[in-house]
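Let's practice the habit of predicting before peeking. Look at the sequence and jot down your guess about where helices and strands might fall. Then scroll down.
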Amino acid sequence: MSMEKTSLGGDPPNQHDDEPHREGVAQRLNWLRAGVLGANDGIVSVAAIVVGVAGVTTASAPILTAGVAGLVGGAISMALGEYVSVSSQSDSERALIAKEKRELEETPEEELAELAGIYQSKGLSEQTAHQVAVELTAHDALGAHLSAELNINELDVVSPWHAAGASAVAFTIGAVLPLVAVLLPPEAWRVPVTFAAVLIALALTGAVGARIGGSSTGRAVVRVVVGGAIALAVTYGIGLLLGTSGIV
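Done guessing? Here is the structure:
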């Protein structure tokens, strides 16, 4: 019984430190992944804007104006999108948690039987499943039901304000790179330097994202670099076309 209790209710003594089993680890990985994606969006979005403008003019003022506008607008858009998305998710999770609390208060015996039934359906015998349910209920009834029934943790409900802030910061950090890269070099080198800096940065974010997600680093890097290169080439080409055609 001790082995069954350990595997279902807590960290086993031989758990590896580098494996994501502990509470909050999955949530932290999601935050890291979201941060990397936000930075990646900032890099590509603002880089596409500034090289597009650079295709029309080499003057610093229009490039800076467009880049800053893209940075601010993109950061706000990312923050709003994240806030709305996380608010919907957290409201739903809080409602489920409140419902589970109410059920535990009003019908504790039915909830105990339900928890035992869940573990029995996973392969435990009726007697063992009942014993596991009893011990988990005694330890943390709400946590046991949230984990077994809904696969959520009360402590992992994300604040939409924190998510919005983190998204805006990540986007801004990524957006600063192409803005600096396009303004610091001499006019003749602005576009090549920006292309090089952006593609290197995308390779790094792709590698970090793959590392966090446990996927192939090579494929992730190729995808993000090729996608970024296409975005830069297209926007620069459009800007160049508009500039040479006399439309702008």
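How did you do? The radius of gyration is 25 Å.
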